[in-house]
Each structure stands twice: as structure tokens, then as C-alpha cells.
Amino acid sequence: MIVLLTSGSVILALVISIFLMRLKLRKKTLAPNQNLLPMATFERASFYELRQITNGFSESNLLGSGSFGSVYKGIRENGMVWAIKVFDLQLEGAFKSFDRECEVLSCLRHRNLTRVITACSSLDFKALVLEYMPNGSLEKWLHVNRHVLSIRQRLGIMIDVACGLEYLHYGYSMPIVHCDLKPSNILLDEDMVGHICDFGIAKLLGDGESVVQTKTLATFGYIAPEYGLEGLISTSSDVYSFGIILMETFTKRKPKDEMFTEELNLRRWIQECSPDSVIQVIDADLFHPEDKTVQRKIKCISSILQLSLSCTTDAPEERINMKEVLGALQKIKLQFIKDITP
After folding, report:
1. What are the backbone angles phi and psi of residue 202, rounded to the nearest 5°?
2. Which residues are catalytic?
3. Do residues 14 and 101 both lie within one domain?
4. pLDDT digits (tens, 9 = 90+) for 323-332
5. Would residue 69 count as lying in a domain?
6. Using CA atoms, how far apart are residues 216 and 223, in angstroms rounded to an integer?
7. How far is CA 240 from CA 78, 83, 163, 263, 294, in A?
8. Which of 2, 98, 103, 94 is nearest to 45 (CA)?
9. What string of H, E and C letters represents the secondary structure of 22-78?
10. Among residues 96, 131, 166, which one ends one of the domains?
């Protein structure tokens, strides 16, 4: 259970809500799964320690900023490295976002979801201590870092994310919709394994619910049409976002790239490309003139892009689900390894 270090009715209510949620979610017996992690033993952390190990939450320790706060790197005396997400309580929705992340993350245990270590909360300070990811975000690897991810690495990361989403959607009797999946919310550990992070606007679907309505909007370009127009979210909304990320990962084009207009978007650009000219949309960094396996690589990425189109149909009922997406990606990976192995 997350350790909250201050007293008071607000904190007590938060503790009780987390405890009740964990009890509710544990009612369902989970099938054995190699991706599940043992329930974590949460450590203690005080505001003073967090301030000390981040040098007073200095800019030199800043890892990144999000909708409701900033994330800092902190190194403890024992050498352990933490990622400390400090919520900006001046922002509307920050309190709710903190409560939601505590509620969701305290219940989840999967190798492809960012692990929560503890939380620190008072009336004027709220922070989550998370597992540190030394290789940063997928967004940085695609658009900032000079190093190029190989096809196999990109495919592996996408399978990691699909595993995490499949767990969110089907791991409990109460499905969880992430609602804001995008490359900056996919973090990479020291082994380049992908982890989904930032559950600040996640939604838990109640008994019998498959669709809920929300007023909270996520990042444009990645949200499904029914989410952006009507505020309707479901597990299919996450599938749509995942499909857009698949496209971006293998074309290196953001959905809001300047080349796209009202008449042309990322999905349509890929859809209108014939099988014979698919190389025109694929990230050029993935190919080299001397490479004898170019055609096999094109075949692999073409299959991935076709899958991404199945994830991003306008009508949510026509989209495939994450179990199907994960199975398809695993088959593509096996075929790719077979094709390029001498």
C-alpha cells in the first residue's frame, strides 16, 4: 500500500479510497502471466528527502514536464535513482490527477507499466515516486536523439506497449483506459523495454460499462474521433492512440507534422500509399544502400502499417482489440526474425 506521510482527513480519505480500490480489483483471480510482477513493498519517503535528493527540485535534475507538474531525477544515499513526479497544485485538475494516479498505480503490477515506489502527500505538496527509466521516452528516441532505433527495437517496444495495454484492458474485471497514450508517455528502461506511464486522466470502467463520457481532453493527434468530438472513451480509444503511435514509430512523422493539412493526415497519407510505394512513407533511417534485406524489412513494416490502419478506423466498433493487436505484432516479429536470419 502507498505510504502517505501526513495526517488529516484528506490524506485519510485518500488512503481509504486506495485500500478499497485494491480490495475491489483483487476480487478477480488473475491467471498466471509472465509479465505480472509481485506486489511491491512500498518504501517511505519524506518531503525533506525528496527535496534533498533533487537538489531542491532544481532545473538540472528536471527530466520533463507534463500537464499537471514536473518530473525530477533524485539519487538517494544508497545510490538508488528515483523519478519524482511533483504535481503543480496551482493547476486545475492537479489534485484529481494525483488521486487518480494513486488509485490506479497502487493496483497495477506489470512489467510494461511504470512502477510506483511510494507517494508523499500533504495539503500543499503532492508527489509520486516512480521507477526511474534511464533511456527516457520513445518520443526523444524518435525525434531528438541522434541514435536510430532499429526495426527490431521499435517492434519490440511496440509489443511491450501492447502487452501493457492488453493488461490494462483485460487484466482485471474492471477495464482501465489510459486515455492519453503517446510517445512521450512511453518510457524505456536500461534494456530498452517499453513502459507506459502517466495515468493522470485514466478511467476505470465500472461493472458493465464499455463506454464512458469525460470532459477531460488528451493530446490532439492521438485521440480517437469519438473522444475528441463527443468525449466518449473506451478501450477502443486506447487502440486508436496505439495505432497512431505505430504509424509515427515507423514513419518518424508526428500526427501534427507540418506536412499534414485538413485534407491530409497521417492515417490517410499511409492509407493512400500503394503496397509498391510504401517505402515512401517509411522512416528512411531504417534502410541502407548496401543492405541485402531491404525488401524483407519493407515487407515487415508494411504489415505493421496495415495493422495500424485496423487500429484507427473512425468507427470504434470496427477497430480490432488489444488482444488481437498483440497477437498480430508477435506474429510479425517472428516472421521478421525468420526472414532476416541467415
Report:
1. -60, 150
2. 180
3. yes
4. 999 999 999 9
5. yes
6. 11
7. 42, 29, 15, 20, 29
8. 2
9. HHHHHCCCCCCCCCECCCCCCCCCCHHHHHHHCCCCCHHHEEEECCCEEEEEEECCC
10. 131
> Which of 131, 162, 182 is the endpoint of a domain?
131
Residues 6+ apart with CB under 8 A from 130: 71, 82, 83, 84, 85, 114, 115, 116, 117, 197
Q: What is the CATH number of the domain that holds 114?
A: 3.30.200.20
Residue 331 CB contacts under 8 Å (≥ 6 apart), including other chains: none
Q: How confident is the model at residue 218 (pLDDT cuts 50, 70, 90)?
A: confident
Q: What is the pLDDT of residue 43?
A: 62
Among 22-36, 103-117, 306-320, the range scoring the smallest mean pLDDT is 22-36
pLDDT of residue 274: 72
CB proximity list for 126: less than 8 A, separation 6 or greater: 86, 87, 89, 94, 95, 98, 119, 120
- Is 28 annotated as a binding-site member? no
Residue 32: is its pLDDT beyond 80?
no
What is the pLDDT of the chain when averaged over all its residues?
86
SS3 119: strand
Distance (Å, whole) CA 23 – CA 26 = 5
* pLDDT of res. 92: 87
pLDDT of residue 234: 95
Residues 194 and 320 in one domain: yes
Q: Which domain holds residue 333?
A: 138-340
> Is 3 among the domain residues?
no
Q: What's the full length of the chain, in residues?
A: 342
The set of residues, in sequence order, having a beta carbon less than 8 Å from that of 315 and lying 6+ positions away, is: none
CATH (domain of 324): 1.10.510.10
Place of cell 544515499: 77
The CA–CA distances, whole Å, from 337 to 154, 275, 331 equal 13, 21, 10
Is 156 in the same domain as 290? yes
Answer with the residue of higher pLDDT: 236 or 275: 236
As a whole number, mean pLDDT of residues 244-261 equals: 95
